[in-house]
Amino acid sequence: MPVFILGDEPIFPPAQLATEEGIIAAGGDLAPKRLLNAYSSGIFPWFSEGDPIYWWSPDPRMVLLPERVHISGSMKKLFKKKTLHVTFDRAFEDVIQKCSEPRVNQPETWITKEMKEAYIELHRLGYAHSVETWSCDSPAEDSGKVKDMKKLQLCGGLYGISLGRCFFGESMFSLIPNASKYAFISMALSLFKNNFLMIDCQVPTKHLESLGAIQIPRIEFLALLQKGLHFDTLVGKWNFPVGGVNDFINQ
């Protein structure tokens, strides 16, 4: 199957025409309209510095149904300690910067300057969101309440795109153990309460599998995507409550 070369129009061929590796197209730009069209078509950009922009729609696709997020025994203990605090859209630029920085087992990053600028613009437009994990000096009343935000330190988080009732995860980071898991679990349960149908995790990793993500055929992913896109997008900063995790794990 050939790789399509994109022109000036922000349109894509059907995702089903992707190569065996999952590449559907190359070229184009990262303008907001093209990016939003890509995600709504089941396609996402992924490329390295110096490469052309590659657009992907892998088969199978890694997804997590929010109500099926897995909370391990060790994570339940961490939530009960209440020494971490989660927010939405409080520090988007800091989160994407941390996600883009090289790591011990990953010296190179695919989050280029061009990518950061594009997603920061989508955040400004109300489509890209961040989830932040903060460390607390003393336990908060719950994961959604803390007395003094100035005393918190950013220690983990993630970011992605929201369209309809679908969230498309892009990257996450942790500066302390389990900080990204803490953010992901908190987000998943909050999205479940707000009737989100899925979190797109794109490609499989052991980290995502440990949180309950599964691989499904692309045709099933695209059907679930279309169902989720029938709902209105929650444009703008997320202001719905973060929390309810302890209620969930105590059931």
3D structure, described in words:
The structure is a single chain. The chain contains 8 helices and 11 strands. The chain is α+β, with helices and mostly antiparallel strands. The strands form 2 sheets. A 7-stranded mixed beta sheet has the order 6-7-8-9-10-5-11, sandwiched between helices. Strand 8 and strand 9 form a beta hairpin. The longest helix is centred in the C-terminal third of the chain and has 15 residues. The chain is globular, with a radius of gyration of 18 Å. The model has no long low-confidence stretch (mean pLDDT 91). It starts with a strand and ends with a helix.
Core attributes:
globular; 8 helices; 23% strand; single chain; alpha+beta; 251 residues
Number of strands: 11
Overall residue-averaged pLDDT value? 91
Strand content: 15-25%
Helix content: 25-40%
**Continuous helix count:** 8
- Low-pLDDT segments: none
Global structural class: alpha+beta
Task: Put the structure in a nutshell.
Helix content is 31%, strand content 23%.
Secondary structure: elements and pairs:
Layout: E1 4-6, E2 23-27, H1 32-40, E3 44-45, E4 54-56, E5 61-64, H2 73-81, E6 84-88, H3 92-100, H4 113-125, E7 128-135, E8 153-163, E9 166-174, H5 179-193, E10 198-202, H6 206-210, E11 214-216, H7 218-229, H8 245-249
